[in-house]
Amino acid sequence: MAVPTQLGQELFYEEIPDGKSVVVWEALHQNNPWLFIKINYSEWKILETNLPESADFVMKVLRNVQDLSKIRFQNNASYHLKTNLQFPPDFGLGSSSTLMTNLSEWAKIDAFLLNEKSLGGSGYDIAVAKEKSAVLYKNENGRKEVEKVKFSPNFKDELIFIHLNQKQDSREGIRLYRSKTKSPELIREFSDLTKQIFEYGDLEKFSQLMTLHEQKVSDFLQIETVKEKYFKNCPVFVKSLGAWGGDFVLSSKFPGYLEWFSGKGFSTVFQWSDLVN
After folding, report:
1. pLDDT of 177-225, one tens digit each?
2. I need a labelling partner for 257 at 20 to 30 A (CA). Which of 113, 217, 249, 269 fits?
3. Domain 152-275 homologous superfamily, CATH
């Protein structure tokens, strides 16, 4: 299960019929310049950039767009593409998934396929970005099932998100997950847990299920839970989100919670309504 956030990523584009086969790519973070790339896509060669590693990734994605699209990068037109990430880059609220989704809509291609070729991963974040809704998502042997749902628990005002002061590398998280063997029994177990989490309207039961889910993922990945790592003796549940082990965690309020988390070095705390759309 996943829910959409209020902030996302914008894509602006211009196609220029000049016969030069040039891509000018500008990426902004909260309207501030971050990345500039100039590419000759007839040879897929970077002509100019300020961040070579990031430029290599963008060029890889655009080459995948060319392979999948019937309308983009198929003649000698030039393109000016500009993205604007609406949240700080270390928040990890879907910078990759919103990029894949925006480019796919622009190029009229399958966002799931572009994501698989460019990043990998289950595609749950692509489903949320496409549907702009909470979803129940299943990907079993490449067969994807997406069910739009309404997830607005009556205890949502008791839930909080804590930023871990770091950005988890999604590709690293995907590699770790893919390196583990997943049995049909394990998949069913997590699917059943997800359904229970979605259906229960009680904070106490929700908290118990969050703790159980966190422990099962910890056992599967063979890494310690985020509570063991950062929040020992916390009186409530702490649940990892997204690429396991970074960005944000989910928890619930308790007396003095802001001071408690701040005392552990984590002072960036959001209410449910601050982040969730």
Report:
1. 666 666 778 888 888 998 898 887 799 999 999 999 999 988 888 888 9
2. 217
3. GHMP kinase, C-terminal domain (3.30.70.890)
